[in-house]
Design brief:
By secondary structure, this protein is of the alpha/beta class. The protein has a domain at 117-410: TIM Barrel (Alpha-Beta Barrel), CATH 3.20.20. The chain is 31% helix and 18% strand. It has 15 helices and 19 strands. The protein has helices spanning 29-35, 94-99, 139-155, 171-180, 213-227, 254-266, 278-287, 300-308, 320-327, 336-342, 344-360, 383-391, 396-410, 473-476, 488-494, and strands at 4-5, 57-66, 74-81, 84-89, 103-107, 112-115, 117-122, 158-163, 188-190, 195-197, 208-210, 231-235, 249-250, 270-275, 291-294, 314-316, 428-431, 448-453, 456-460. The strands form five sheets. Strands 2, 3, 4, 5, 6, 17, 18 and 19 form an eight-stranded mixed β-sheet that branches. Helix 1 (29-35) packs parallel to helix 13 (396-410), helix 3 packs across helix 4 and helix 5 (213-227) packs parallel to helix 6 (254-266). It binds zinc ion. It comes from Lachnellula hyalina.
Amino acid sequence: MAPSRTADPLPSFGQKSVTSEPYKGPPRNIKTINDIHFDASLQPTNYKILGTHPDSKILFEDVSILDSTGRDPYPGDVLIEGEKIVRVGNVPDKEKLKKDPKVRVIHGRGRTLMSGLGDAHTHFTWNGGDLNRLGDLGVEKHVLLTARSAQCYIDSGYTMCFGAASAKERLDVVIRDAINAGDIPGPRYLANGKEMARRDGDLVAGITAYADGPEEMREVIRHHVKLGVDNIKLSMSGEEITETRSAQDCYFTDEETAACVDEGHKLGKRLCAHARARDSVTMCIKHGVDVIYHASYINDEGMDMLEAKKTKHVIAPAINWLIGTLNDAEAFGYPKAKAEQVGYQRELDAAIRGLREMHRRGIPILPGGDYGFAWTPHGTYARDLEHFVKLLDFTPMESIIAATAGVAKLFMREQELGKIQEGFYADCILVDGDPLQDITVLQDHDKLNVIVLNGRVHKAGRKEYIAPPVAGQDANYHPIVPDFPEVKKEMQKNY
Ligand SMILES: [Zn+2]
């Protein structure tokens, strides 16, 4: 079946050219995020992370509290008991607590204490290199690689990640369960299965679950749900780098999309979709795909439809992939001229336009960046927050709220995750700097001085951050990301 291809002129969204002063008011996306409403039947399993002693006490003294409610940061203390934050602002009996040898006291000296970050488009199983070879990577090494990425997220200050596809069908599930059991370090995680594509619409063959037509698609979803996934991934549109499947092509039909949503929701699972093409975005909205990735080529009609249903959808643009492919891929043999020629500049321009308009209309946009490709390496996740500020008209506060309270909402646990408030789980980071003045500070691992997850200290002090290996590094010493020089050219073409 030929895909439906569109190459519309970029839409105006009914706007005259807007050149206003940068917005400086209160965060506009608080209401947007509060208003998101997923049906209660789609609530993910209530995972717990084991291993926190119920009597453990941590006192953060003299910190600048950035609580993700929209309030400006304010000075105070924060007390954590067991897994939860129990006091914020004024901690009673502080002097007594400080003398108690069982209380771990961390002197903030005015540093920023904020919620751990969240990512709405995570691939633990991507190797920072050749995705085509992931299908052939032995399962033993692939487990190591996946655990390594999970650790890299928590090392980078991320405490919530929403899985956006797993290269092997059970990897995400197994790693999620190991994190929750306290066996390996990693963020709270909602696991995905393999991405599902039509046989004429795949992006990377070795990591795809194939299905054509509504019945086979329902079958794949039932299979993944049986394996224990939390989310279902549909790969609906193309991707320019494949050179065979355009980002403006939509491969799914209405019947297929409707069947996937019906089956997924019936089984209590939400769906997310790789949807760059106009028609793929429209189908997601029409049939209720909960999380829409990219959405680059949304048109006027799609924008209006999305606005009307903005409490039902979350957009995660993963815009760093477009930026990285244009600006950072040259070193890997994919020149900027090539990226421009196949359409990445055009797509980036379209995406920025659409996303700004979504933000203006109060449509929820969350960071989450498709990290784990060669030129979007693991550990650089917080670039997304900078892009939101520099390209999408978010204030730094809005960007942080999206990455914290926003991803907590995506987890459907906004009453206990993503904020520095009493009764919330103690997932927090102590930042040496003010991210409201300089959002890029969150990308600097040396400035993430303390990282706490579930009331347990993951990192304290200025422990050196060790970046995960990349393909071919150290003369191929790392077994989990070997280089494949003989296919290098092919790799550059296909991711
Ligand atoms: Zn992705």
